[in-house]
Amino acid sequence: MAPLPVSVIVVSRHRPAELARCLTGLSRLAYDLFEVVVVACPQGAEVVRRSALATEAKLVEFDRANISVARNRGVAVAAGEIVAFIDDDAVPETAWLTHLARPFAQDRVAAATGFVRGRNGITFQSRAAAITPTGDTVPLEVDPQRTTLLTGAPGRGIKTVGTNMAFRRSELARIGGFDPAFAFYLDEADVNMRLARAGAVTAVVPLAEVHHGYAASALRRADRTPRDLYEIGASLSAFLLRHCPQDSRDGARARFRAERRRWLLEHMVTGRLDPAGVRRLLRRLDHGLAQGLMRPGDTLPPIPHPPGWFRPVPPRLRGAPVVLRTKPFRRHAIRAQARALARQGRPVTLLDFSLSALFHKVSMEAETGLWRQAGGLWGRSDRSDRLLRLWTPAARQRRELARITRQRWNREDA
Question: What pTM value is reported for the model?
Fold first, then answer.
């Protein structure tokens, strides 16, 4: 089956280092027909011009704190049949787009979403879920290895994760894309609910994985402590106006505020916030909840097809996947070998095991595109494992490759 043309859209604002790493990951995707659209502030635009994608990426300069408007700007120049979205503080697995685009071969599929791993590169940050009229997320059970097709319905959207989602461009453009009333928070949930009203089919694709770091921004610190809750409150009120029955809205707002207050108090107990900070953030939340009531929903105009051409990224990966494992007394030499191969365009995974029980962490190096899993030979990778388990190096390698091979290379072995 010939690959469908996909436009990958990245929105970036004031996070140049994270964007550079994301672009490295995108440049090494194992997919034959995709373009990259970057909607970025001046800092981010400069990163694009210096990146490996400098000559291919479509760059849209935009420096307003509104994720919905920024995404629509990206869709407006995206010429792919499918539009996929990833955050600037995320990195895709090499076979991400291969898995994410595959369900769109079925005409009835309007959207797709994958699984997201958190900062350690192993624990899942998000999996399959539904969205309710109050904006709550309800976990869904799906096969962790196979694509599941789910049909939305009025009052029940299928959640697409903002940092790992795709839409058939014609469907997203027809409903006007993302609603600018959602500058931050619930922006994709609103799209999910609008598609659900039409009975749209969403594919949940577990093997389409990205790694998401939750980098610092104007709205949160690197440890996820909030800096401001105004837009979260405003988006919640706007969402309730559009999707929640009127007699349930006040209760939903009160419950949301109580949950956020408990969350802020937890931050205070850990020392990340002081009492004055909690009070300030609650005032901002209340202001946002009130202001969001003045954001009534309007029918959004369709997004026209772009006048420009599809601009495919040429393949940069060369050769079969390479797996290297460090050994005592040769650790530095094997690391250097892995980085050299990655710079040549080889898809390289380095299993950097120490003789310890340290927990494992997976990351992609921004400079080389090397995937590195570091941790103790006898330590946990999956956090549900036993605290300590004896392994031989070869057995541990087989176990870890079984966990990642299909996501990284779309193969059963490596």
Answer: 0.95
